[in-house]
Amino acid sequence: MNIATTDVEKVVRDYLTEVEKLPDTFDANLKLFAGGAGLDSLETAELSAILEDHFETDPYSEGQTPETVGEILDFYRAQGAESS
User: Could you tell me which of 1, 2, 44 has the C-alpha nearest to residue 19?
Assistant: First the structure.
């Protein structure tokens, strides 16, 4: 599957908007938990499911626990995602 990092960013941004946790600044350094977006465990599970639905894999299902948006992007880059 050919994944563009901009597609991953859009999915994460859309989800944070949906749960009303999108901060003013959205970039790779955005922390997903305390001190950032403030996701709780249920929201993290939902994000995992959404990423899995869109891209057929996600870092959480692979045993990783990304702390930032950048770590999610790094996971998909390691899977062969194209930077755009």
Answer: 44
42's tokens: 């249920």
Query: What is 5-19+29-78's CATH topology?
Result: 1.10.1200
Beta strands in the chain (DSSP E): none
What are φ and ψ of residue 53, in 5° steps? -60, -40
Render pLDDT for 43-65 as a digit per residue (tens, 0 to 9): 999 999 999 999 999 999 999 99
pLDDT at 1: 56
Query: Are the CB atoms for 52 and 64 separated by under 8 Å?
Result: no
What whole-number distance in Å separates Cα of residue 62 and Cα of residue 37?
Answer: 22
Q: Any idea what DSSP says for residue 60? A: T
Domain boundaries, the chain: 5-19+29-78
